[in-house]
């Protein structure tokens, strides 16, 4: 990177490592896994750099192994939330006035530390506490978060350079102030990178932030917080307040100085938060910016011309990587009858061959789902499909939570296009397939568009350009990330900016310039170099 004053150079995406057998990197991750399981991590609330322990704690266990306790976290109560808000407001002035080159340098250093000495540790934490295999941890906790840090810096430098025109008689300037107040960052459990990005994107713009991590991802999120401390983030810029969302949320949202919410999680939680903001709207100092990326019911749509092998791979990886716990996961598929006859045997075989087990065995493709609630919710859908006359289970369907929250990757065939599992977000390893008559391609595209309230990701598989264009046009509002001949997951920062509309969120595209604009409040400054000294217009003069 060069020339910070004129603007950072566009960074490259962080390379993804393979962790092949015998490699040094694989050995280091294994060493970290062992160490973390032997140790017990005590996670405090952190306010203004001060670590606070409370008498209200919760255990952190591996989702894939109930007997392994990794540590415990201390929950913030109302009083600590108030302290965190006051501290955020105190830390604000100094942070906002720091040269932006120094602010971005801190996040550049965080990226470099994560790419280097912290990489194995953060990957291992994500593997153990969120039950991600090494490949899924690597693309998330290492690569995507490094990219978020670096690309946010780059985009911010571009925003700062964008200035209005001036002339010989006036100087115009756009000052990109942080928001007035503090920002509340509330991430989901499923991506460590989102945990790190939600507080750091507003922070790099000069805001101070309250970070409430998801209760099932506190372990990795705390390590990211420690990484930011090591990178030089001043105390109080981000305060770390783990605890119950239902208790902390209303307390924070009621504060008149709330300047913004940076949320990713379920549609229901986001709607609740928006309603709370609405209820408090008359109390705020300014209108809080509300950014929320939420649920999805992501589709794969196959035209009869689709490449069968590419389609099978996209369904297997798109639906079942990280146990389908990606907001982008392929969760419903539309396949013409004749193509189904060609692919069904191989698809079912491949899904049944997916190895299920703990993360410590790197040959396992599928690990556990996050917790008991997720296990219960997902298996209820499977049971519904097993008992319904409108559905049939073609693969998987078994589950067992005796040692860990394991659910076999499951394929459901729906007789009706609006069968429950074609419509609702399941957020687990369940793919529902609906077969259609290839003569009814356009009608089925419309059906796909209207079947669910979401609009996050979707894919068309087709070798016929006209059919591809028809899908792209008919499904124009059905997905904020639309893929042609690719799975609907795995967006890369700087290449496929991520987010969706409809019930899937405000579509502010995490890791892009669009997202950063939400965390700044521009002030236009005009300086008149030659102020006029006569109020009258020329045409008012008497001839
Ligand atoms: N669109 C995206 O970019 C994206 C990315 C990842 C996950 N997701 C979505 O996230 C969901 C899964 O994540 P989850 O289970 O962690 O979601 P969730 O809604 O249960 O929790 C998200 C966060 O909100 C907090 N929370 C819960 N109730 C709250 C309240 N009343 N006030 C304040 N905070 C509260 C939780 O503690 C957590 O930190 C899925 O719906 C998935 O589609 C979306
Ligand atoms: N950005 C990720 C999904 C994040 C939500 O879970 C993807 O594109 O697969």
Automatic annotation (TrEMBL):
PROSITE patterns: ALDEHYDE_DEHYDR_CYS. One of its GO terms (cellular component) is cytoplasmic side of plasma membrane. It catalyses: L-glutamate 5-semialdehyde + NAD(+) + H2O = L-glutamate + NADH + 2 H(+). Keywords: NAD, Oxidoreductase, Proline metabolism. It is an enzyme of class 1 (oxidoreductase). Pathway: Amino-acid degradation; L-proline degradation into L-glutamate; L-glutamate from L-proline: step 2/2. Residues 56-513 form the Aldehyde dehydrogenase domain. It comes from the Bacteria. Gene3D superfamilies: Aldehyde Dehydrogenase, Chain A, domain 1, Aldehyde Dehydrogenase, Chain A, domain 2. Its EC number is 1.2.1.88. One of its GO terms (biological process) is L-proline catabolic process to L-glutamate. GO terms for molecular function: L-glutamate gamma-semialdehyde dehydrogenase activity; proline dehydrogenase activity. It holds the Pfam family Aldedh. InterPro entries: Ald_DH/histidinol_DH, Ald_DH_C, Ald_DH_CS_CYS, Ald_DH_N, Aldehyde_DH_dom, P5CDH/ALDH4A1, Proline_metab_enzyme. Belongs to the aldehyde dehydrogenase family. NCBIfam families: D1pyr5carbox1 (TIGR01236). This is L-glutamate gamma-semialdehyde dehydrogenase. The gene is pruA.
